[in-house]
Write a structure and sequence with these properties.
The complex is a heterodimer of chains A (496) and B (163). Chain A is an alpha+beta fold and 496 residues long. Helix content of chain A is 31%, strand content 28%. In chain A, a hairpin with a 6-residue loop joins strand 12 and strand 13. In chain A, helix 4 crosses helix 7, helix 5 crosses helix 6 and helix 8 runs antiparallel to helix 9. Helix content of chain B is 74%, strand content 2%. Chain B contains nine helices and two strands. In chain B, strand 1 and strand 2 form a beta hairpin. Chain B is globular and about 35 Å long. Chain B starts with a helix and ends with a helix. The relative contact order of chain B is 0.12. The chains are: A alpha+beta (496), B mainly alpha (163). At the A-B interface, helix 8, helix 9 and helix 12 of A face helix 4, helix 7, helix 8 and helix 9 of B.
Chain lengths: 496, 163
């Protein structure tokens, strides 16, 4: 006997949906029943091409342990039932760098990491300006409004501190309140960030469509996440419920099972990936899976995501287009990374510089958090031209003759150091404050006359060879008032 | 800080009771105290430049402390008046210890936080002066325990400076 046609399945699904309220009233009186919906009948947690009323229960017992009146009937109004145990699903979490930015790649905020689903477009009412591209991911991947997100990491493994930051979270929600359907977040892109609406290994997307138009148990779906990469599964239901390990209960979720004998559909780190149908239309936003099996997995319906966050998924390219990832463009960032890596190697080779680097490593996260979230520290960082000085010093790593300006916006590097030492010592943790007190004068001393990173390293190297006694004579500018007073009169005008 | 002319006038109007020790006389007259301190600093070139620096910016700093709300708050919150009082009360005896901490705030913390507040609200000239001299002022505040120490450091630092 041949399998029923798709049209037949769709007709059957609509017929079942028409009587769903009646079936819900009938079945939700049974103990432990949480929800009833139309979906595929699952066998060994794999969706089959047979429709059924999925009955979600909190406790599943063998029929022999149940009284006759407590057993859920095998059929209701002529359609089969499928009793599904609500399992605790884990929010999933997850290294290549992709420029331009592409969907399906790793994304990280300091508090969590996962997958950059897709570059969507903000619409009216969005926290981002309407029409602007925004990163779409999960709220539990990027939970903090106003904080930066990085691809692949934030902060990155190199010591430049900021090269991987790609955008800033402007809206992050698990909602709406009362009937939670969405775990979503959007981030605006940093100025000049190159992006594409494509997804790695999938390519161009063809807009979005509601999962309710698909046939459970028949229609295949796919996603690309940073952990399991491209995987295919079967839609089991577009109206499932799930309770996550973090205590959040979701309704109207897309439930996906792995292909028979196939790999796990979703594992830790895939959260935030978008779920697509066979025509490369986005139908959902993945956020949870039953682990370690990686199946079933759950996604918020894309229409709910778009309504809550005010975004849309663009229609672009042509079906089957060659993914941009196969034609990666050379990036200036890669050059800078190589130069910074070489500088980092030299830094580690000099004992004194290594000690400085240890300090940076020890406090980098806290300082970043303070700069991003603490108003006083953030104001000081920007008032004293911190971003500009950092950028200029980074430039000296890649350009042999480049020198940091003596002043930027009327501020000297020493103003920046004094200002940041004062605010970090006041607002940082006791450990950070103690290290600031112990080392900020050395940092001030090192900054004098060093207009390139390698000049500072040269000085540290010379001091190491000559011993501490040589220190005061090594400096191009003497630290005492006489030299200082003279230097003031020779100050050059600001160039940046 | 008073200028030298004013200092002399003050000294002549209040004759010292004991001509033997300028320190003793300084303890009895604030003007004489400042005049004495200034004379000691002027004795070394580096000290003279320090005096010139203070004279160049003292008026602006005083105006900021008295008239700029945030600078005033930083000064008060970090025990600025208490430090000044404690230093004046020491009588400028060269061997007297400079108070390093008042009510849980160290002298270095006061200077660092004031440097930040002053460079934030002060003129470009004051900001440049802070960029150029904050390091040495903060280092002296950390390493000098008395005026004697301070005069010694000024002399030593001057000797270390290449011509």
């Amino acid at each position: 006997m041949s399998a029923p046609s798709r049209e037949h399945m769709l007709r059957q699904m609509r017929a079942m949906e028409a009587i769903l309220p009646q079936v819900q009233a009938e079945l939700e009186r049974f103990p432990n029943v949480e929800a009833v919906t139309v979906g595929a009948k699952e066998r060994a947690q794999v969706a089959t091409p047979q429709l059924a009323f999925q009955v979600y229960v909190t406790v599943k017992k063998p029929p022999s342990e149940l009284a006759q009146e407590d057993r859920i009937p095998e059929t209701v109004l002529g359609f089969p039932t499928d009793v599904i145990l609500i399992q605790e699903a884990s929010p999933t979490e997850d290294d290549d760098k992709y420029r331009p930015l592409l969907g399906g790649t790793q994304l990280q905020q300091s508090a969590g990491e996962g997958t950059l689903g897709i570059i969507a477009i903000a619409t009216a009412g969005s926290a981002a300006p309407a029409g602007d591209p925004v990163i779409l991911t999960n709220s539990h991947v990027a939970p903090t409004n106003g904080k930066l997100v990085g691809q692949p990491k934030s902060p990155c493994d190199c010591w430049c501190c900021a090269c991987c930051d790609v955008g800033r979270i402007v809206d992050t929600q698990i909602g709406p309140a009362g009937a939670v359907t969405v775990d979503g977040a959007i981030a605006t892109l940093n100025e000049g960030m190159r992006y594409s609406h494509e997804i790695v290994e999938i390519g161009a997307v063809r807009g979005s469509v509601s999962a309710t138009t698909l046939v459970p148990g028949t229609d295949r779906v796919k996603k690309r996440g940073r952990t399991t990469e491209l995987t295919h599964g079967i839609l089991s239901s577009a109206g499932a419920g799930t309770r996550r390990g973090d205590g959040v209960t979701f309704v109207n979720q897309i439930r996906v099972t792995s292909l028979p004998g196939g790999p796990p559909f979703q594992l830790g780190g895939d959260s935030g990936a978008v779920l697509l149908d066979s025509q490369d239309r986005v139908i959902g936003l993945m956020h949870a899976a039953v682990l370690p099996a990686g199946t079933p997995a759950f996604a918020s319906r894309i229409e709910d995501v778009m309504a809550l966050l005010n975004v849309r998924i663009p229609v672009m390219g042509t079906p089957g287009a060659v993914p941009l990832s196969t034609a990666a463009t050379p990036s200036a960032a890669a050059e800078r990374h190589a130069a910074l890596a070489a500088l980092g190697q030299r830094l580690h080779a000099i004992e004194a510089a290594g000690a400085w680097w240890e300090l940076v490593e020890r406090h980098r996260d806290e300082v970043r958090d303070l700069v991003q979230a603490h108003r006083g520290v953030s104001l000081a960082w920007h008032r004293y031209q911190g971003p500009a000085f950092l950028s200029h010093y980074m430039k000296t790593a890649t350009e042999a003759e480049y020198q940091v300006p003596e002043e930027i916006g009327g501020m000297a590097p020493q103003n920046l150091l004094v200002g940041m030492a004062a605010v970090l010592e006041q607002h940082g943790s006791p450990e950070l404050a103690a290290d600031i007190r112990e080392h900020y004068l050395d940092a001030l001393q090192l900054s004098r006359g060093c207009r390139r990173i390698d000049h500072a390293l040269d000085r540290l190297e010379r001091e190491r060879r000559a011993g501490p006694a040589a220190r005061s004579h090594e400096e191009p500018a003497p630290p005492g008032p006489p030299g200082g007073v003279r230097r003031t009169s020779h100050r050059e005008p600001a160039r940046a | 800080m008073s200028n030298r002319k004013t200092g002399r006038a003050a000294a002549s109007s209040s004759p010292p009771t004991s001509p033997a020790s300028p320190v003793t006389s300084a303890r009895r007259d604030p003007h004489r105290k400042l005049e004495y301190l200034e004379r000691r600093l002027q004795a070394a070139p580096a000290g003279a430049e320090l005096v010139a620096l203070v004279q160049a910016h003292a008026e602006e700093v005083m105006a900021l402390i008295n008239g700029q709300r945030r600078v005033a708050a930083t000064w008060q919150r970090n025990q600025g008046p208490a430090f000044v009082r404690a230093i004046v009360d020491s009588g400028f005896d060269e061997s007297s210890r400079i108070p390093k901490e008042v009510n849980g705030v160290t002298l270095e913390e006061l200077l660092l936080r004031m440097a930040e507040a002053l460079q934030r609200h002060g003129s470009t000239g004051l900001r440049h002066a802070i960029a150029d001299h904050a390091l040495v002022a903060l280092r002296w505040s950390r390493e000098c325990h008395s005026l004697q120490d301070l005069f010694g450091r000024i002399r030593d630092d001057a000797e270390e400076v290449p011509a």
